[in-house]
Amino acid sequence: MASRVAFHPQTLFFSRREGCRDARSCRVSMASAIGSSAVTKVETQNKTFAPRDLHIQVTHSLPPQKIEIFKSLEDWAESNILVHLKPVEKCWQPQDFLPDPSSEGFYEEVSELRERCKEIPDDYLVCLVGDMITEEALPTYQTMLNTLDGVRDETGASPTSWAIWTRAWTAEENRHGDLLNKYLYLSGRVDMKQIEKTIQYLIGSGMDPGTENNPYLGFIYTSFQERATFISHGNTARHAKEHGDLKLAQICGIIASDEKRHETAYTKIVEKLFEIDPEGTVLGFADMMKKKISMPAHLMYDGRDSNLFEHFSAVAQRLGVYTAKDYADILEFLVNRWKIGDLTGLSGEGNKAQEFVCTLASRIRRLEERAQAKAKQASTIPFSWIYDRQVQL
Ligand SMILES: [Fe+2]
Ligand SMILES: [Fe+2]
Q1: Cα 384 to ligand 2 centroid, rounded to whole Å
Q2: pLDDT per position as a tens digit, 231-248
Q3: Which of 13, 150, 273, 301 could form a disulfide with 201 if both were Cys (CB 3.0 to 4.6 A apart)?
Q4: Active-site entry in 134, 166, 229, 236
Q5: Tens of pLDDT along 296-341?
Q6: Which H helix or E strand runs over 57?
Q7: Contact yes or no for 296/207 (Cβ under 8 A)
């Protein structure tokens, strides 16, 4: 049963599936409190491989003349964005943080790792597994970037700056899932087969961020998401330290530092768009926030729990790994980063969008306070990822 207690960002603007025990068969249309038609849900057939709970699919919403902007920014991207990639030889690799299987001391290192992991509580493991599964759905994120008009990798080995960025970004990200996956595997604390099934389901489902092949929307989305993952991995690092696993803290911390670098690059792209086209960019920002930023793994499923993502999010909220407050903080950070309050010369519509994004964080915080005040006793549910051990939501 979905939690009525946890207040997490995914549900900020949507009515919950009240009374719906099975999200895969429950096709309640979610009403948006803001009323944009773009967020109306479409019905999908309950097929094994069909994504569920999709938005109405809007495609190619950016006009051709604006797509040209990205072509004209090729050289700019080369000198301003590609510099945020790290050369492979300077990058850490998962093996740097894992027992070396070719060494004499391998078994001893593994048993030390397992000893450390014994102290880690189940609710923390649920958060770490959820984060790992999110990272492991990387094929979906590369696909998503390659849906964007004007910046997609047209050939698979395109020499444009945008395509070089996307491939190298993917290659950097690939280490995140690898490292967390191997560490959790060695820990012996989690049900790897259930986790692997969840990853397969998730990659098969894809994601539905509502970015409409529109690079304005796409880069606003990735700016938000990189910061969200920076915060979430930073918090799992902090918690690992508290639970006495300094190696795991180091792992989560090093991943968080990659996310920070990615955030810097994506926010720089959007900053440039604000410089070139403040009106179009502020409209895009407001549009994404009205649709709300869906988390990359929002379609996750393990073959058992139809509300798995909501349950994982509820645990992350309760533990402070990723919360509604973080969502509001990220929004506020971006509003300040892009100096939205200082934009001038906007149309009436642009002014409204500016006002909307500048005041949204405080509205979200007020909603959060109300939800906290209404919070009832949290329920406990089993998570298949940890052999159905019960975890409080
Ligand atoms: Fe990542
Ligand atoms: Fe990242």
Answers
A1: 27
A2: 999 999 999 999 999 999
A3: 301
A4: 229
A5: 999 999 999 999 999 999 999 999 999 999 999 999 999 999 999 9
A6: none
A7: yes
